[in-house]
Each structure stands twice: as structure tokens, then as C-alpha cells.
Amino acid sequence: MSAITKAGVTSAATSSKACGKAGQAGRRASAKRRGSKSLRKSPTKKGGARSAKRRSTTRSMAQTAQRATVAGDGLPNTLSANHSKQSICEPSRGTPGTNIQSSATTNSARLPTAKIAKAILAAREWKRQHRARQELARRHLIDFALFVDRTYRAAPHLAEIAGWLERVECGEIKRLMIFAPPRHGKSRLVSELFPAWWLGRDPSQQFIVASHTAELAETFSRNVRNMIDTEMYADAFPGVVLSSDSKAVQQWTLEGFTRPSFIAVGVGGSPTGKGATCMIVDDPIGKAEEADSQLQREHLYTWYTQTMRPRLEPSGAIILMMQRWHEDDLAGRLLRDAQRDGEQWHVVSMPAINNAGKALWPERWPLSELEAIRSVSVRSFEAKYMQRPRPAEGALFKRIWLRTIDAGSVPQGLRWVRYWDLAYSVKQSAHNSATISGAMDANGTIYLRRGWAGREETPDLRRRIKMIMLSERRDRHGIEKAMHGGSIVQDLRREPELLSIAFEAVDIDSDKVVRATPVADRAEAGKVCFVRESVSDDAWIADWIDELCAFPFGAHDDRVDAVSGVFVMLSTASKGVYL
What we know:
elongated, disordered N terminus, Nucleotidyltransferase, domain 5
């Protein structure tokens, strides 16, 4: 081999060895670098494992939330699905910065998923509470009021009235009177919410609601109709809807029925041809002039008894709800009828101020406001706010003049007389028959006891007169000669049992006011006393004092005539004293 060749080979070998050594050194350095990198990479692998675990947990929670939403937990499907997609999106493993982005994605997905879970729980709780409120609204009137009207103020007295109305709905009470002050929420509850609630429970019911004007009655009708057309009502009573062809405010019908479900009428109006399973008369008197007019009171009573009452279906209910105006208003008339074996009523009376001096609804009507109203007109306040109607002070008698004493305070040895003022008719609009016993002492003080007033047919009245005469044998009895008094006296004279009893027909020839004036003069001097023999006497004594104080402007004057008759008999006797 030539020198050149050898040199080339040697040079090449030397170069190859040098390259091999360099390569080995490079590989060792590279391995060293890889080892260092592996050591640095080790924690990242562990962190990546934890991130992967968190991503798996996040994905599982998101999928659970999505399944819960599909199952109907009350959240929008799009919201749950979007958050689920966001939670499972992540960058590829080969992308630089994978660890940082994966951690950020996990944290961002974790927060909205927790919110979703919390919202699901809240939705479930809201749905549970809503179903409970629905059930209560269907069962109880006051809960229904709160369900359909979120602004309704369920004051304690309104909750009590609602309880009474529920007893009407279940058939326990057929006749209910509710007396409450003005502007205390009674009409909203009784004439609007109650019919809507009962129709929801039983759509076959038929209501007639009347008030002092047709306009007010139609307002009640419109409010009930509109309430039934709301989503909240449909939520409480699904399926109860208005008929599409009967929605007039004067009367309207529910879907599926032919007879009117609600009829509105004013006092004096007539729902001819229509019937009611429940009749509500809401404030039939609108102003004081109507209450103080005897003619208007007669018209109202006639309208109720001859026009409205016959419209009630068998086993139907009547609710009379009003503020009292007068002792002879519609409620007063019906309560007196009840005392004479008429229809019996449950009476709920709510004075604006109770016996303890507290206001009925202090949040709305504080005591100071009520006292300011009282100061304007005591009589009006006592009637409309306290439900204690009192007659206006008459021209002759004042309440402060008339005293009541116990029987033990009456002087001994007085001789008593009894006078009978007889009515000419037993019609509801006619006067009463009235009788009272009286005596006068040496000082001219008149004592009055054992009063009675009422309407009876002549045979029944004759029996009553005879019974009282037999129980008061020692007394002298006088019967007004006018009307049929003379014939009754003749009949009684034929009774053998009455032969030993002094009685006579008394001829009256002067005006009522003229006869009552001497009694009023004695009353002003403090010389007229009512005698209280027992607790039961309080009622009749109050009635007699009321009528005396109203005379001559009151609805009746029979008791006044009886007192005047007693005075006439005492005055015509020797010295006016019977010893």
C-alpha cells in the first residue's frame, strides 16, 4: 500500500476513532441531560395524574347534573348541557402548557357545576313548597287568598271570618250574619275570594251577590271573574275555566254548565228566573239617609223577603254581611223575626274596638284613628264601627234621665197597674203590641217592670193577657179600647177565672206626644225607674229605653204608648198611689 494510502487510512481511522469518542461523549452527555430531564419531569407526571383524576370527577358531576336536568329537576336543559360540555373540553397532551391549561379548566368547570347542583336543590325545595301551598289553597279559604293574591293581608279578624265561611261551604251553617266595620277587608274576602274558592272546589255552585247598588255588585262579579281567568287560579284549581259564551259582568257561567255561576244584582233588582245555592247580601244600606228613613227600611225588608229570599235553592245558604246602621235595619228586622220563630242566624259581630280597648286591625286602623272617627259622630261610630246601633236622641226623652234599679230598691206596699197597647195587625211591617206594669210612690217616682212587646194573632194575644192577669191578680189592668181592645175586654169578662180581677178598657183621646210629655218631665227630674228583677230583664229594659229615646223619630212607639198608658192609669187613680 502506498504511503498516501496508508496515510489516508490512518487518517481516516484516526478520524473515525475521534468521531466515535466524540459520539460516545455526546451520547453520555445526552443521557446525562435526559436523566436530569427525567428527574425534572417526574413531579409533572404525578401532577398530571391528579389533574386527570379531577377532570374525571368533574366530568362525572357534569354528566350527573345533565341527567338530573333531563329527569325534570326544574333547570333548563341547555344550561346543564352547556356546562357539561365545558367541563369535559381539554387541550391535547402534546400541546405545550398542558398542565397549566388542564388545571385552569378544572377550576373553571368546578364552580359552575357546584352552582348547578345548588340550583337543582333549590328548585326541588321550591317545587315541594309550591305543591304544599297548592294543597293548602284548595283546602282553606285564607290560604287560597294568599295563593292567588301575593299582596293580600291576612289579618286575624279576616282569618276568623274565613273560618266561618268554611263552615258555610261544608254545609254546617245555612244562615250567617257578619257585622264588621267599614274598610276592614270584609267585602274582598266574603264577596270575591269566597265565591271564587267555593267554585274551584265545587263548580256546580250558583251565587247571587247583592249590594246597595248594582254597580258595586257588578264590581264584585268582575273581580271574581277576572280572578278565575288568572294563571294562579288555574294553578290552584286546574280545569275550572270560564265559559266562552257567557262572560257578562251581570252574570257569567263556568265551562260545562248552563246555569249562571255568578249573578250580580243591586237592592231593588230582581234575578227573575234565576236561582242560587249561596246568596250573599253585602252592605244593603249605602248611606245614613236610607237607614234613618222608615220607608226605605220597609222597602229593603220587602225586597229581601219577597224578591231575594225566594231565589234560594233548597238547602241553600245565605250570608248577610254589613256594618250596622240602625236598630231597625235589615239585620235588626231579621233578628227580631228569629225571636218570633223565624229563621235562626249565626251572628259574628266584630267591633272596631274590643272590650279591652284594643283595635280590631291596629296595623291598618290604629286606636288613635278610630277615636278621631268617633269624635265626629258618636252615634254613627257606635252603629257602623262598634255594631251597636242606637236610636237618635228624641225630642222628649234623654238616655241619661232613665234609671235602672234592682227590685230590692223599690218601696214596699205599692199597688201596681198594667196597661196594654194593642197592635191592629201581625204583619211584619206593623206595630207591636206592648204591655208594662207600673207603680208610683208618694214622691211621684214611677217604677216600671215586666215589660213585653211583640206581634201575635188575636187568639194568642188574648191568651197572653189572661195568663198575665192570673199571675198578677192584685194589680189593676187596663186595655186600650181602640182597634179590637174593646172586644177583647168583652171576651175576658166572660171568663169565670177573671171575675175577681180588676180590668177595664181605657179610652185614649189625645196625641201620642201629648200623652208622653208628662212622663218625659218626670224622667228629666229623675223620677222614672226601670226595675231589674233578674239578669234576663236587661234585654227588654234596653229595648224600652231605646224606643223612648228615639221617640218620636224612631221606627216604633208602642212601648212609649204603653208607658204613657200606665201614667194615665196612675194619674186617674186616687192621689196616684195605691197602698
